TrEMBL record:
The keyword Amino-acid biosynthesis does not apply. The active site is at K202. This is DegT/DnrJ/EryC1/StrS family aminotransferase. Belongs to the DegT/DnrJ/EryC1 family. The modification N6-(pyridoxal phosphate)lysine is found at K202.
Amino acid sequence: MNKAISVDQLAIHGGDPTVKRTFPWPIFDDQDVQAVADVVRSGQWGNPDCGDAVATFEQQFADYCGSKYAVSCVNGSVSLRLALIACGVRPGDEVIVPPYTFIATASVVLEVNCVPVFVDIDPDTYNIDPQKIEAAITERTRAIIPVHFAGLSCDMNAILAIAQKHNMRVIEDAAHAHGAEYKGKKLGSIGDAGSFSFQSSKNLTSGEGGIVVTNNESLYQMMNSLRNVGRLPDGQWYDHFNPGCNYRVTQLQAVLLSEQLKRLDEQTRIRNENGLYLDQLLADIEGVTSLSRGDVALRHCYHLYIVKYDKTKFGYIPKKEFVSMLAAEGVPCSAGYPHPLYKQPLFQQKNWQCYAIPDSVAYTQVNCPEAERACADEAVWIFQQAMLGTRNDMESFAEAIRKIRRAMLNVVESGS
Ligand SMILES: *Cc1c(COP(=O)(O)O)cnc(C)c1O
């Protein structure tokens, strides 16, 4: 049996932390530095007026994903926005999104004068629940943005079938999902378009940046024009055809991404294997559960390793306190989103003055109980850089959870 431990032994109260190392991110070496330094020395920092580093990286990333085209841009919000506009959404159209995701998934919908419609998540995967999608479809629904949350693939066969039946476009939000796969296909390459972020926390990063991949030539041409102030490839510099902006990345970002991309596949393999191992380790600890990887062939890239926490098995300490204890033990983690997106002031207060959202749209009545529970009580996020550790590190994460549980149960049992 586990030996009892006192609360004083927890790192949060000054005890020895379980995890003895830190987990750096981003990871780089002299080759990354050299690549960026070469661009600096060349003086060719911009795009598209000089150099071809941006086009080179776009081709590399498209090839990596198994997609025909890629359009890079300033971030993973703009990439979603470019895809929505290119898909032909009109003001007042509805776009289905999950409520358990980063704000950008839904706010970009408002930014194209469309209405985000929230469909709850599946509690076993934290991805949008395909069984609940059809009930949310109206004659105004034009698109769906499935988010491969944490790097775990959505049920794409089910989503594609529903989209086909209802003539909806599918824009994958793969901001967490670089290198992850569903049935042998890279996430992002499955729907009409797939959007990625290169913001500093993401599994492939240049500090900021984004990209959208597609196999559809007309979508590609429109997105390519939109991110380049509406220019056309054969047009003149001061001829503008589409209502875009300057959303271009620099050559400095592009060469850094080309260097970073060389590491992605091996890093993804390591995270995936560590995730499988951590699943096994947590299966032996009461009160914590892993999300389900389902029964299809997939490769998870663990942008986050999500632990489902059950406070009733931890002496009823609230999730937030558990996360503080776990972080003090040295596990890089957080409690994640405090609320589902529709609870944000943006939606509750309808703070979209400059957008033409129909007056009838209201979010105060929206309720997605699974997303509510994930936010309030259940979801604990372990960050991707921690998933690049060793098997020993995974064991120490499990040990940290076990240690907290022992201390908490001891408090309950001794009534102190
Ligand atoms: C990070 C993120 C984005 C947006 O990316 P930025 O590069 O920060 O604009 C979109 N969707 C999800 C799910 C994200 O996590």
